[in-house]
TrEMBL record:
Protein name: RagB/SusD family nutrient uptake outer membrane protein
Organism for this UniProt entry: Arenibacter arenosicollis
Annotated ranges, domain RagB/SusD: 341-622
All residue ranges annotated as the SusD-like N-terminal domain in the record: 104-220
Compartments, record wording: Cell outer membrane
Presence of the UniProt keyword Signal in the record: yes
C-alpha cells in the first residue's frame, strides 16, 4: 500500500472532531480520549465524521485565485510562479513539478476516500445502535462522497486504485490501478447506493441527498460517454494511440451509442425529479430580464431552484460549524471579488477572462461576433447577449463605487481598461490597467475581469464585509446541458433543440435553427458560456478532444485606444463616444507560452507514488 497516501488519516479524523463535535461532548470528554468505538456509536460524532468528508470539495471552483478555467482558452492566471503554466505549456511531469491543486492531486484525495471507507464500514457494523433514518442518510452521504472523489480522480487519471475497505498504514504495497471500466463501474455503484439510501433524506444544498446523487450520476455518465474514452475517436491522439495499456484510460469494449443512451436516461431522471429556474419561456426573454435571470442564479445561491449542491458561504449546512463569509479574512466564495476583481478596486485580478472567451458571446439577436467585421470591431461591447453583461467587467462598463483614494482617478464608477489620449497629448492610463496608478501588479493582462459570482452591491472595502455568494458544485442547468448533449449524440435533435431553447430563451437568445455538426458546435459554445468558472471547460475540452483548439494559441488582450475629438472639452475622463474616438485591437501577449501537448489529456501519477507501489502503471506520455 502507498503509505504516504494515508499518512494523515488519523490527523484528519481528529481534525473534524475538533471542528464539529458538540459543546456538551467537549465538556464531558477530552478529545484526546475519544476512541474509535465512541465516534461510531455517538450520533453527533458519527455525523461529524461523515460531514468531514465534504472538506475535500473545497478545492474546486471559487475556492482559490486559480480557477480551472485558467487552464483553458477561457481565462488566464495573472500572477506568475504558481505553476499554472505547467499545464498550459504542457510541462506536467511525474516528478511533480507543477501546481499540486487538490482537484487533481492523487495523494490529497485518497485520505478522503479512506475516511469514506471507514464511515461505510463502521456505520454498517453499528447501524443497529442508531436511528435507522440517520444511518441511511450518513451511509448514503459516505457512498456519495466516495463516488465523488473517485469521479474527480477518474476525470484526471482514468482508471485508478480502487479501495473500498479502510486499509491500514502497514498494508502491503500491491494495489494496481483498476481499468477505466472498473473505475466507472465502482463510481456508478456508489452513486446508485447513495440514491437508494438517500431516498428519504431531506433536501439540503450543502449536503448530498437523492437529487445531488442523481445529478452526479448524470455528470459521470456524460463524461465517460465522450470521445476521449472512445477508442475510435481517441486514436487520433498520438499518446493515446501508442499507449500499451489502453484499458486504463478508456473503453476497450461496448458501444458509445449505448453509453450516450445511458447518459440521456440518467439526465432525464434528474430533470424529471426536480425543476430548474425560469425554463418556461416560449420566446426569448427581454435583454434586461435575461441579464437578471443569469445573475439571479448565482446571486441567490442555494435559494435559487437551479442550485443543486455546493458550498454555502454562511452556514454550509453543518449546524454550528459556519463558514466566515462576512467580516474578516476568509477563503473560498466569500473571497471571489477580491481574488478576481480589478486592481482599481484594490482587488487582485487572479483569474481573468481571455478575448477567446469574450468572443464566444453572440449579439443579442444571435448573430455571431466577428472581429473581422468592421461594425463589430468598432463597438464590441454594444448589444451583446445578456450573459456577456452578467459575466464580464469591460472598459466603460458601470461598476461599484470607487474607494475614497481612487475617486480622483474615476468619478463615474466605470471600468477603465483602456488608454485615453487628451487633445493636449496627455495620456491617461486606465485605473484598472497594469499601467494604472493603483497596484498595477494586480491589473488584468487581458483588459477584462470577471463579474460573475461577484455581489454588485457589496462595497469594495477589503478586508472587511466580504461577500456572501454561494459556490455551486453542480446546477440543474448542467444536467439540462448533459441531456441536450446526449440527445445530439443519439440523433434525437428535436428533443435536444427543445431543451436547448429553454435555456436560450431564459438567456434572451433566439430559437436554435442549426442541425448536424453545426448544432453540436452551437451546443458546446452554449455550455462554455453558461458554465464559465464552474469547473466545466477544463474537463469538457479534454473529453471533447479540444485540447489543441483550446490551448494551441496565445492569450490575447484587448488594446483599447481612445483619442479626444477635436473641439471637445473634457474635465474628467469617462467613456463617451461623443468626446472620444475608440479603437479596439485584440493582440497576443507574451506571458504564458501556451502550447497543447497530447499527454496532458491525462494527468501524470507522481513518481513517488509509483516508487511506493511499483504495481501502479504510469499514464501515457510520461
Amino acid at each position: 500500500m502507498k503509505k504516504n497516501i494515508f499518512r494523515n488519516a488519523a490527523l484528519l479524523l481528529f481534525g473534524f472532531l475538533v471542528l464539529a463535535c458538540n459543546e456538551d461532548f467537549l465538556e464531558t470528554t477530552p478529545l484526546t480520549e475519544v476512541g474509535d468505538a465512541s465516534v461510531w456509536t455517538d450520533v453527533k460524532l458519527a455525523e461529524a465524521a461523515v460531514l468531514d468528508l465534504y472538506q475535500g470539495t473545497w478545492a474546486g471552483t471559487l475556492t482559490r485565485e486559480e480557477t480551472t478555467d485558467a487552464f483553458t482558452d477561457q481565462a488566464v492566471f495573472t500572477h506568475p510562479g504558481r505553476g499554472v503554466d505547467g499545464y498550459t505549456e504542457g510541462k506536467m511531469n511525474p516528478a511533480g513539478n507543477f501546481m499540486d491543486m487538490q482537484w487533481f492531486s492523487w495523494p490529497q484525495l485518497y485520505p478522503f476516500i479512506r475516511s469514506a471507507n471507514i464511515a461505510i464500514q463502521k456505520l454498517t457494523i453499528n447501524e443497529a445502535e442508531m436511528d435507522a433514518a440517520l444511518v441511511n442518510r450518513l451511509l448514503g452521504e459516505a457512498y456519495f462522497m466516495r463516488g465523488y472523489y473517485y469521479t474527480q480522480l477518474m476525470r484526471q487519471f482514468g482508471g485508478v486504485v480502487l479501495l473500498t475497505e479502510p486499509l491500514t498504514l502497514d498494508s502491503e504495497a500491491n494495489n494496481p490501478r483498476a481499468t477505466f471500466a472498473e473505475t466507472v463501474s465502482q463510481i456508478l455503484s456508489d452513486l446508485d447506493r447513495a440514491i437508494d439510501l438517500l431516498e428519504e433524506a431531506p433536501r439540503d444544498p450543502a449536503r448530498a441527498d437523492k437529487i445531488t446523487a442523481l445529478a452526479m450520476k448524470s455528470r459521470v455518465l456524460t463524461h465517460v460517454a465522450s470521445d476521449l474514452y472512445e477508442p475510435s475517436k481517441a486514436s487520433s491522439v498520438s499518446t493515446i494511440a501508442s499507449y500499451s495499456n489502453p484499458e486504463l484510460i478508456g473503453w476497450t469494449s461496448g458501444s458509445q451509442l449505448q453509453r450516450w443512451e445511458a447518459a440521456k436516461a440518467a439526465s432525464k431522471t434528474l430533470l424529471d425529479a426536480t425543476t430548474g429556474y425560469k425554463l418556461d419561456y416560449t420566446a426569448p426573454a427581454s435583454q434586461e430580464e435575461a441579464i437578471q435571470n443569469y445573475e439571479d442564479i448565482w446571486l441567490q445561491g442555494d435559494q435559487n431552484q437551479d442550485f443543486i449542491w455546493g458550498r454555502l458561504v454562511e452556514e454550509f449546512g453543518f449546524g454550528s460549524r459556519t463558514y466566515p463569509g462576512g467580516d474578516g479574512w476568509s477563503q473560498g466564495p466569500g473571497m471571489v471579488a477580491l481574488y478576481h476583481g480589478p486592481n482599481g478596486y484594490h482587488e487582485w485580478a487572479g483569474t481573468t477572462p481571455t478575448e477567446a472567451l469574450v468572443s464566444k458571446y453572440d449579439f443579442a439577436d444571435g448573430t455571431k461576433f466577428d472581429w473581422d467585421n468592421p461594425a463589430h470591431a468598432a463597438a464590441p461591447y454594444d448589444n451583446r447577449e445578456a450573459r456577456f453583461y452578467s459575466t464580464f467587467l469591460y472598459d466603460g462598463g458601470a461598476w461599484k463605487q470607487r474607494t475614497d483614494d481612487v475617486v480622483k482617478f474615476d468619478k463615474f464608477n466605470e471600468i477603465q481598461t483602456g488608454f485615453y489620449t487628451l487633445s493636449d497629448g496627455t495620456i491617461i492610463n486606465g485605473v484598472d490597467t497594469r499601467q494604472g496608478p493603483i497596484e498595477d501588479w494586480n491589473g488584468s493582462r487581458t483588459g477584462y475581469y470577471f463579474r460573475k459570482f461577484v455581489d454588485p452591491n457589496q462595497p469594495a472595502s477589503w478586508p472587511n464585509d466580504l461577500q456572501k455568494v454561494d459556490a455551486p458544485y453542480i446546477r440543474y442547468t448542467e444536467v439540462l446541458l448533459n441531456y441536450v448533449e446526449a440527445n445530439i449524440n443519439t440523433n434525437d435533435e428535436g428533443e435536444a433543440i427543445t431543451w436547448l431553447n429553454k435555456l436560450r430563451f431564459r438567456n434572451g437568445l433566439p430559437a436554435v435553427t442549426a442541425s448536424g455538426s453545426a448544432l453540436l458546435e452551437l451546443y458546446k459554445r452554449e455550455r462554455d458560456k453558461e458554465l464559465v468558472n464552474e469547473d466545466a471547460r477544463l474537463f469538457d475540452m479534454k473529453r471533447w478532444l479540444e485540447g489543441p483548439q483550446s490551448l494551441n494559441k496565445q492569450v490575447q488582450q484587448i488594446l483599447i485606444q481612445a483619442t479626444q475629438k477635436p473641439g471637445t472639452t473634457v474635465a474628467d475622463y469617462r467613456k463617451d463616444t461623443s468626446l472620444f474616438d475608440y479603437e479596439y485591437r485584440p493582440t497576443n501577449i507574451v506571458f504564458e507560452n501556451r502550447v497543447w501537448q497530447d499527454h496532458v489529456y491525462f494527468m501524470p501519477i507522481k513518481q513517488e507514488e509509483i516508487d511506493k507501489d511499483p504495481s501502479i502503471i504510469q499514464n501515457p506520455g510520461y
